[in-house]
Amino acid sequence: MKHHIEIYSEPFYLRPLLISDLHEIHAIWTDPHVRKYLFDDNIISLEAAMVEIKNSLQSFERHRYGLWAVFLEKSMRMIGFTGFRNFHEPPELQLLYGLLPKHCGKGYATRLARLMIKYAFEELQFNAVLASADAPNAASICVMQKAGMKFFKRVNINGLDTIYYRVERRRRSRPP
After folding, report:
1. Tell me: the pLDDT tens digits for 133-160?
2. Which of 85, 112, 152, 161 sees the fewest Cβ atoms within 10 Å?
3. Do the domain assignments include residue 1?
4. Where are the beta strands (DSSP E) in the chain?
5. Has residue 143 been placed in a domain?
6. Cα 49–Cα 117–Cα 120 angle in degrees, nearest 5
7. Are 127 and 104 in contact (CB under 8 A)?
8. Any idea what DSSP says for residue 136?
């Protein structure tokens, strides 16, 4: 891969999802805790998971972002994912994250969101980062708030009450 972007930030190791991750990421994406809000409680097929991985790899090649596999450095077992993906029509690039249940409640999702926001601003020169969550997903809304994002809008998408948060890159003041 031309842009194999690895990120090390205690206690995490992140690298782009790879084809070889298919079964491991599929197990995460079909975990009831993860899929409840990510895939609207649908169990996606292995084929659909493969499409997600391939789209992510293409995005890394073109734009230097996509979906990263998240590992704890000491165990090197995948515990979740994070990154940027387009949602809806017209496409909106959004931050997303998900962790297996045993890794929730430890501040990991907030740290991952902050890490991705930093990457978006410092490496990709994004002007803003957008994320959304289903209104009942209080944990994800809390993560967005703790990551420094501010309420942006609330809309109905395909019958789901969806809350958006956004953070803008701080402009450095110029000397006089």
Report:
1. 999 999 999 999 999 999 999 999 888 8
2. 161
3. no
4. 7-9, 12-16, 67-72, 78-87, 92-99, 128-134, 150-157, 160-168
5. yes
6. 80
7. no
8. T
